[in-house]
Specification:
single chain; 162 residues; alpha+beta; 60s Ribosomal Protein L30, Chain: A; two-stranded antiparallel sheet; 5 helices; binds magnesium ion
């Protein structure tokens, strides 16, 4: 059996933060605000995976009221989501991600983001797709106030470990 999940995340830019997407620090004049490291790619992928398995969402799993997750490395949260699916008898098949940002240009970073996500998710790099678009200067994204990320994940039933 195969199931599909969708994930969405958005974060606001702030000049005093590093920009971290898909576990990769990307040179830019601003980063994203958030309780964790605000890695919107990791968050959208995690929610797509949890959605496919009907296991809730990262807001429920890692509440932003919990000081444990202050400044958290979102790739660690993603690894926890991967493990949660595993123990519930699911295996990630592939993820497809669209990042909508007016700047910076993400194309030069897509390959390393793919590799990093594939590594954490324990899938091959060709099972991770990352696409980047601008918002044609429209709305909050177009004004450079923040970015949005959409992700789709497919999972298949698998024998739980051990
Ligand atoms: Mg988020």
């Amino acid at each position: 059996m195969m199931r599909v999940g969708i994930g969405y995340d958005s974060h606001r830019f702030a000049s005093d933060r590093p920009l971290i997407l898909g576990g990769v620090t990307i040179p830019h004049s601003a980063g994203l605000t958030g309780h964790s490291d605000a890695d919107a790619v990791a968050h959208a992928v995690a929610d797509a995976m949890l959605g496919a398995a009907a296991l809730g969402d990262i807001g429920r799993l890692f509440p932003d009221t919990d000081p444990t997750y202050q400044g958290a490395d979102s790739m660690m949260l993603l690894a926890a989501v991967r493990d949660r699916l595993r123990v519930n008898g699911w295996r990630l098949q592939q993820v497809d991600v669209t990042v909508v940002a007016e700047a910076p240009k993400l194309a030069p970073h897509v390959g390393v983001m793919q590799a990093r996500l594939a590594d954490v998710l324990d899938v091959t790099a060709d099972s991770v797709s990352i696409k980047a678009k601008t918002n044609e200067r429209m709305g909050f994204i177009g004004r450079g106030e923040g970015i949005a990320v959409m992700a789709v994940a497919t999972i298949v039933a698998a024998a739980p470990p051990g």
